[in-house]
Amino acid sequence: MSNQPFTPQQLFSLKRATLEKRMMNYYEETRDENSTIKILIALQVRDELSEDDFSFFRKDLVRHLFLKTKSTRALRRYYIYFKEYFAEKEWRLLTARLFTTLSFVVEKLEKLFTQFIKEPLASLAGS
Length: 127
Description:
The chain is mainly alpha-helical. The protein folds into 2 domains: 8-86, no CATH class; 99-127. 70% of the residues lie in helices and 0% in strands. The chain contains 7 helices and no strands. The chain has helices at residues 8-11, 16-30, 33-49, 59-68, 73-78, 88-98, 101-126. The longest helix is centred in the C-terminal third of the chain and has 26 residues, at 101-126. The protein is elongated and about 65 Å long.
């Protein structure tokens, strides 16, 4: 879905109760995890910049997104910003869930291939 539920003006001026209600309505209607996570990060910025309390905004929704939905690139990219929402044991399980061993092995193999095969062969071809 390309249209955003909130304008920047709304994100930084509406009251917490109004944002919580609208956020849940938006997520229930669209099930758009990527946009929801980005909005939650913007609200964390608001929490840091303003005197209003937006700490642990929609904790139930954040926990649902990370623990119950399919792992996506956006969840893996932004999960570090939500560490306070989880206990230590849950955080380790979440990290293991989002970053599977297979993706770790593939990343290391690509790095080794580049370092030991691709770059030396490229230098030999250039000479």
